[in-house]
Write a structure and sequence with these properties.
Layout (H helix, E strand, L loop, with lengths): L1 H17 L8 H5 L1 E3 L5 E3 H7 L5 E6 L4 H16 L4 E6 L4 H11 L4 E4 L9 H5 L7 E5 L5 E6 L4 H10 L2
Parallel strand pairs: 3-4, 4-5
Antiparallel strand pairs: 1-2, 3-6, 6-7
Length: 167
């Protein structure tokens, strides 16, 4: 009986901790450099500061990712429903050329940045945001605080509801 009670308590604590909401990016994340469409490296913090005062929906994706491509119609629906939101696409593509070709092929409208890391999702930026799946969506409010840290392509209702609360 004691073992069952202990197991139950540990299970609840584990679930509670894994659902904890991150409210800010770490210093390490903010210092990470991403690449813009012109090939210029920009610290992640500078990208966030550029859009301060606006709600940001960030999608971490890659052109080779089937789930990412499959979710694009939903992103386009969100863009039509929430035109006031800044859409920031952060690519985990393996090369600059494949990334740019993916943007054109899928006609992605928004702000685009590329993580130049040969380790991809398992690289420094991916680790700094706890990236374990793409597409991954993060919503940042107008104050620069994280409203939704971890959402995937099956959670568009949650993403839409969060955006609705920020209008």
């Amino acid at each position: 009986m004691k073992k069952a009670a202990l197991f139950l308590i540990l299970s609840v604590c584990t679930i509670s901790c894994t659902d904890a909401q991150t409210k800010a990016f770490s210093k390490k994340t903010n210092a990470e450099k991403l690449v813009d469409l012109n090939g210029t490296e920009i610290p992640f913090k500078t990208i966030l500061e550029k859009y301060k005062g606006k709600t940001i929906l960030m999608e971490v994706w890659a052109s080779w990712c089937g789930d990412c491509v499959g979710a694009m119609p939903k992103i386009k629906e969100l863009q039509a429903t929430h035109p006031e939101v800044v859409y920031v696409f952060v690519s985990m593509d393996k090369s600059f050329d494949k990334w740019k070709a993916g943007i054109e092929k899928h006609q992605l409208k928004g702000e685009h940045y590329w993580v130049q890391d040969e380790k991809g999702m398992k690289g420094s930026f991916g680790k700094s945001i706890d990236l374990d799946w793409i597409p991954r969506y993060i919503i940042i409010n107008a104050k620069g605080e994280i409203e939704l840290y971890r959402a995937i392509e099956t959670e568009f209702d949650k993403i839409n509801a969060t955006l609705n609360t920020l209008k």
